[in-house]
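Task: sequence design from structure.
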């Protein structure tokens, strides 16, 4: 018998404190059933990882949200990366790996460093500020669209767009409805920004379109791949940076460690991604009857993978709930793993390293000075507001 649990992973109470429910799911067995949505779920590290690795048994092409594309029309044109299986996926992924290559990252290090240092200087001059809008959103909203080659106008639309798409992976609840309420202008803008004419010749966008010239993909496919960057490239990083500041403020001894050795910046960001898991969940769909532990789930079952629960599974992690910037956390699944492992992780890690490096060198203390406000989203874990005060080193 697969244990049935009365848990709603898409409601305010769950988002406010998901950890008791994560533990209940992990402790109930390798796979559980959530009758409220007629879905299965995995929350233990080994099972989440196993599912991420087994793309043959668990398809992404029927959507990585609760909606089954075999039964319902997708909310938007499916992504050629996220919502695709091999062989289509491998063709587009190879291209994106090339666009987001180590060489491309090396070229961004200097401008991204300048931007990080300037931002932290300006925030130190203010003293008190909101770590969400003024830091976690401000930084990616500058450096990322620049790297893509977007024009300066309306870049803030990237936030509501991400909020929409990440809500769309859950049920059509009030969070989703609110996110798509004024969607039209944002959708039209994103569509327009994906076109070649909108993109400067030096950025990631142009690099994707150049692959169309080489005959690797069609122009239409290039536009959908640019859309992937615009969808997944900002909100995720915003919540990762927010998580890092939130961790450093709550674990002052970790911040002291980072200040003593700024070369820990990259590790400190990685550990925040493990602990807070900005992307909490994704679904897969079983392509056949599959056995998890001793239990079998039917073909066509939607299975929710709790990345955030796997990343705090005490079966896998010592002191799982501690923010420890020197732990060996390389196996965490905050960026997923396997063929769908985050293609933009190289960029997120660069941004995280540079912002945390600037904090390590320039800041003495980070203190939370107001009530943090959570931002509710069916997929993303993050905050709407995090009032902080920083003092200079
Ligand atoms: C990882 C992710 C999230 C949302 C959208 C996409 C990817 C996409 O490829 O469009």
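Answer:
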């Amino acid at each position: 018998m697969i244990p049935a649990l009365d848990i709603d992973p898409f409601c305010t109470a769950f988002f406010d404190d998901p950890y008791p429910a994560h533990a209940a799911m992990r402790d109930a067995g390798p796979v559980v059933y959530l009758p409220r949505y007629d879905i299965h779920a995995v929350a233990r590290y080994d099972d989440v990882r196993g599912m991420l690795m087994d793309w043959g048994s668990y398809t992404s092409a029927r959507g990585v949200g609760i909606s089954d594309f075999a039964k319902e029309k997708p909310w938007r044109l499916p992504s050629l990366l996220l919502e695709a299986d091999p062989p289509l996926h491998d063709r587009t992924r190879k291209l994106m790996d090339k666009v987001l290559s180590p060489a491309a990252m090396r070229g961004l290090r200097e401008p991204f460093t300048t931007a990080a240092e300037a931002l932290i200087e300006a925030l130190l001059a203010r003293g008190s500020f909101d770590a969400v809008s003024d830091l976690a959103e401000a930084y990616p909203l500058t450096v990322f669209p620049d790297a893509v080659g977007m024009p300066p106008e309306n870049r803030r639309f990237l936030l509501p767009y991400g909020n929409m798409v990440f809500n769309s992976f859950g049920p059509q609840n009030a969070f989703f409805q609110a996110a798509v309420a004024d969607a039209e202008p944002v959708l039209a803008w994103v569509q327009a920004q994906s076109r070649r004419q909108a993109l400067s010749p030096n950025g990631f966008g142009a690099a994707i379109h150049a692959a169309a010239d080489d005959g690797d993909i069609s122009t239409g496919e290039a536009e959908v791949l640019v859309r992937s960057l615009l969808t997944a490239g900002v909100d995720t990083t915003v919540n990762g940076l927010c998580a890092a500041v939130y961790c450093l403020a709550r674990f002052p001894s970790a911040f002291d460690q980072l200040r003593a050795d700024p070369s820990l910046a990259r590790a400190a960001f990685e550990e925040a991604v493990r602990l807070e898991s900005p992307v909490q969940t994704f679904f897969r769909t079983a392509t056949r009857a599959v056995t998890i532990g001793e239990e079998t789930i039917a073909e066509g079952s939607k299975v929710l993978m709790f990345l955030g629960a796997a990343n705090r599974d005490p079966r896998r992690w010592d002191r799982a709930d501690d923010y420890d910037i020197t732990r060996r956390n390389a196996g965490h699944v905050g960026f997923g793993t396997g063929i769908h492992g985050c293609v933009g992780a190289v960029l997120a890690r660069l941004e995280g390293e540079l912002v945390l490096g600037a904090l390590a060198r320039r800041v003495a203390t980070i203190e939370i000075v107001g009530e943090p406000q959570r931002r509710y989203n069916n997929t993303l874990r993050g905050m709407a507001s995090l009032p902080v005060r920083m003092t200079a080193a």
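The chain has one domain: 12-392.
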